[in-house]
# Entry
Amino acid sequence: MGRGSYGLDPEMLDRLAQEIGAVHQRGVQICLVIGGGNIFRGTSGAGSGINRATADYMGMLATVMNALALQSALERRGHQTRVLSAITMAAVAEPYIRRRAIRHLEKNRIVIFAAGTGNPFFSTDTAAALRAAEMDCNLLLKATKVDGVYSADPITTPGARRYERLGYMQVLANDLKVMDASAISLARENGIPIVVFSIFRAGAFAEVLAGQGLFTIITDDGPEAGGGR
# Structure
C-alpha cells in the first residue's frame, strides 16, 4: 500500500516490480509469498466479530488480489510470471502444485505464491517458510517495515537495538516478533537462513543478496556476531 493507509499504490507496485526484476535478470530464481494486510487482515477481522477461520480465508483472498497486481506490474516490465494459489480459483491463477512451481522456476519464470498455505490459523510467514522448504530455497528473505530485527519495536521504542546476526533459538527464546514461531522453527528444521530487511529502502533487495546494506540474518550459527546497531 506504499504511503497510503489501505489498498494498492501503483507507484509502490512499480518499484517492487523494478527491484524484483533487476535481481531476476542476474540469474537468481525467485519465488514470492504475498501477504494481504493492505486489504484485509484475518486477525483484525476476527477481532471485529467474524469467525476466525472465515476471517483468515478472507485474508487469503486479499493475498490473491495482491499477487495478481504484482504479476501485472512484473509483466509490464517484460518478466514472465506465474501465480499459484493454495486455494483453487482456476479462472485467475494456477493451483499450487509443487512440481509445477519448480518447473516454472526452471523455465526462468518468477513464481508468486498466493493464498498462504490454504489453511486458516496459519500466517503468510509460515507459508513463506513452508514454500521455501518445498522449493529447496537457499535463502528466505522477509521484506518488512524495518531494516532488520530489533530488541523492541523501533517505531514505538526509541533506542531499540538492531541485531545483525541471530540464531533461530535466540529468536524463539527471546520471543522476537520478526516471524511466527512456526515459521522460524520450520526454517531451522530445514536449514534455511532468514534475512530481514526493509521493503521501503530503494535497492535493498539487490543489496541484501550482495551482502550489503542494512539487514538481520537469522541462522543456526549460535550467538549474535558483530553486535547490533
